[in-house]
Amino acid sequence: MHDVTLPMLWLPIVASAVIVFIGSSLIWMALKYENAEWKRVEGEDNLREAVRKLNLAVPGQYVFPHMMGQGADLVAKKMEEGPVGILLLKKPGPFSMGASLLKAFVFYLVVGLFAAYVASHALSSGSDYLRVFQIVGPVAFMAYGFALVPEAIWFGRTWKSVCKGLVSALILCGLTAGTFGWLWPR
User: Which pLDDT belongs to residue 2?
Assistant: First the structure.
């Protein structure tokens, strides 16, 4: 039954990465429903100056109030007073759209590779489109969407943002699964 090997699936892996890359770009540039979740900080320059004065290592990720090394009562008081947050700092310098797009494409290739791995063990050559879709779709959905949930549980990402991200994951998984179904070895 398991006559499909990973090398046989190079075309659906690469084609799905290209199609998902285009789909993701359209989600962010044309549909823009996720963009609204990234809000502008009023007084942005004041915030930037305050963070700069802290002389934090970059890149870096910070949480405040920090829970370690403080008494539970003090942490509880700080949590109650607010603000409470996560601060992600990138290295200063020009934003490289090309490097980010390349990293995204590599991610889509890796998702395709893992989807292909699972499908190659679950399906045989000649499997029909719907059956391939049923195997590849959930794998791709998990890869594109499930990491968002712990971000809401632990790190304060809004559930609205997670839900919008899961809609995007559903679209991207459909593109991945559809491509694999279309190009599955016959």
Answer: 65
